[in-house]
Amino acid sequence: MRRQFNLPSDDEAYLNTLNLEWETVVEGGHWLIIRGYPIPDGYNHGKVDIAINISAGYPDTKLDMVYVYPHLSLRNGNGIGALSPHGLDGKTWQRWSRHRTPQNPWRPGIDDLSGHLILVDHWFERESRKVGA
C-alpha cells in the first residue's frame, strides 16, 4: 500500500483498528483511500473503496465529502442526489457532495478522521433509507 504522505498519528492508529487496507496518495491533492469499506444494505455493492481529500491545513481545516469506487446505486431504483464524477488514481470515482451543517461545524483540535467516517456512515445509511426518487 502506498504511503505518499503521513496522516496525524491518531488517524493512522484509528485506521489500523478498522482492519481495512488504506493508503495515502498525492494526486492533485492529498488523498486517503480506504479499500473494501463496508456499505449498508440497500446498495448495489456491500463494500467499496472510499477516498477522502485531506486538505492542506488538516486537522485544523475540515474534511469534506466522500468519493466512492465503484459507483453506488440503490437496489430499489431510487436516485441518489448530489453525485458527480471525479478522476482519481486512474479511475472515475463517484463524488458524494455531503457537508457538515452550521449545527455541526468542524471543531479544530477536536474533530478528526474518525468523526468524519462516522458522518460518511451516516450519509450512506440515510441515503439507503430514502423513499422515492
Plain-language structure description:
- With 133 residues, the protein is of the alpha+beta class.
- It is built from two helices and six strands.
- The chain has one domain.
- It has a six-stranded antiparallel beta sheet with strand order 1-2-3-4-6-5, with no helix packed on it.
Secondary structure: elements and pairs:
Elements: H1 9-17, E1 22-26, E2 30-38, E3 47-54, E4 66-69, E5 83-88, E6 91-96, H2 113-129
Brief descriptors of the model:
alpha+beta, 133 residues, six-stranded antiparallel sheet, 20% helix, 2 helices
Question: How would you summarize this macromolecular structure in one to three sentences?
Answer:
By secondary structure, this protein is of the alpha+beta class.
Largest sheet: 6 strands, antiparallel
Cα distance spanning the termini: 38 Å
Structural class: alpha+beta
β content, as a range? 25-35%
Query: Can you list the strand order of the major beta sheet?
Result: 1-2-3-4-6-5
Helical content, roughly? 10-25%
- Please write the string of helix (H) and strand (E) elements: HEEEEEEH
Task: Give the C-alpha Rg.
Answer: 15 Å
Count of separate DSSP helical elements? 2
How many beta-strand elements?
A: 6
On the 0-100 scale, what is the average pLDDT? 96
Low-confidence stretches: none
